[in-house]
């Protein structure tokens, strides 16, 4: 040993430093492996074997979460722990796991410790995850008031007009033939339909220039590194902070002008449509303790609503069109459904949309197979015993639920990886209940009565106190977009041998994004359909969504002018 130490001391720094680092790494690896193989903690869920400490199973999980969950479940069962960037994440799959995590007590776990670092610099202080949980629940109650049936009914014609205007004016659809970037198109349509309905005409009128740039800069703040260090002086973080301040000022200016018009009693300038948008709902809202929302809090909640759900809805819409491109007969079936149920030339209404069964089934099947978020995380703040076992999840761990994994289970859905909207024909039991329908045990976390049950394998909007408050709005927005596109477009795959592109989990846009997907389109004259196809063209950098490198797949969009 003395001779080895002497030889080590005699090494130059250029050799001794790398050798020291290598020895430290080797020792850490050896200690990590030995502790897993010979000294496992029997009082905690089994740990997925990994060689490198801190890194753990990060790579395997990041490449394909669902595949990783399936492999771990086959070895360890529904409950297991894996290491993600140094933090133990305890996964609990299935209905019991969903109940354990999504219906967990706030005194035992919370979401703010997970997402607060990421969202607070974007939304601002005092709202969403930067306030006590009871205040967040109250904010969700106030936001939910803009999703009434009356409001949703008023949004439908706005959705239709935005989609029609986009197809008519977008460079993506110029001429009789060409190509269209699906993710870019759906991202733009989604943000336009969301702003014109929830944000009001003032915001929508500015979104082609001012707000679009600010939105992109805020969106850049949703980077994985900001889960850990949102304070880093990175260029995108500086743009994020400036954009939030400017956007706050813009919203406050809109709010003050509205208050001025209301106080002056100027009905000529008062837009009746303002009554149903989110700004109006929040301006008139009060917390349960009687305090009104400050203009700054209204502005910050509006920023949160602008960002919330944009990626999820846009990605879901892109998956709808991509799957329909592989099933062109379904596009025709959707069109024939509109003719049979609504009649030729009928305007789309909320009641009409709700009567389009296949239109709804296409959305539900897409959300089942392509769940917007594969992992729902909560920080454990008190030891949580796992029911039916001797295990307990200790404080400091993160628990992870994956309703999307259950939706892909052969135990629940026959041929789960096949996109088949007709699997929902005639209802499919518990998972086919109408969105928002409340049955069985209920609970009210402060923003309305909801079902406490999380046994359904179909939970695309989550469950528990953090269930998406805009679920009905999302269904109506996506449904109206799909119904309008079906009136305008015929989607057909050019290459009959090509598969639907797989999800690229290696690229993170907030929590999940999908690859660039290109779609050729052809424009058809009234009552005519073109039969020729075109080559894929290069697309520019997308305006609204940061996604992966281009994948040149061939899809065809045939536009109907009805």
UniProtKB/TrEMBL annotation:
One of its GO terms (molecular function) is heme binding. Heme binds at residue 468. This is Uncharacterized protein. SUPFAM superfamilies: Cytochrome P450. GO terms for cellular component: endoplasmic reticulum membrane. Pfam families: p450. Pathway: Steroid metabolism; ergosterol biosynthesis. InterPro entries: CYP450_sterol_14alpha_dmase, Cyt_P450, Cyt_P450_CS, Cyt_P450_E_grp-IV, Cyt_P450_sf. Belongs to the cytochrome P450 family. It is found in: Endoplasmic reticulum membrane. Keywords: Endoplasmic reticulum, Heme, Iron, Membrane, Metal-binding, Monooxygenase, Oxidoreductase, Transmembrane, Transmembrane helix. It comes from Thyridium curvatum. The chain crosses the membrane at residues 15-34. It is a single-pass membrane protein. CDD domains: CYP51-like. Its cofactor is heme.
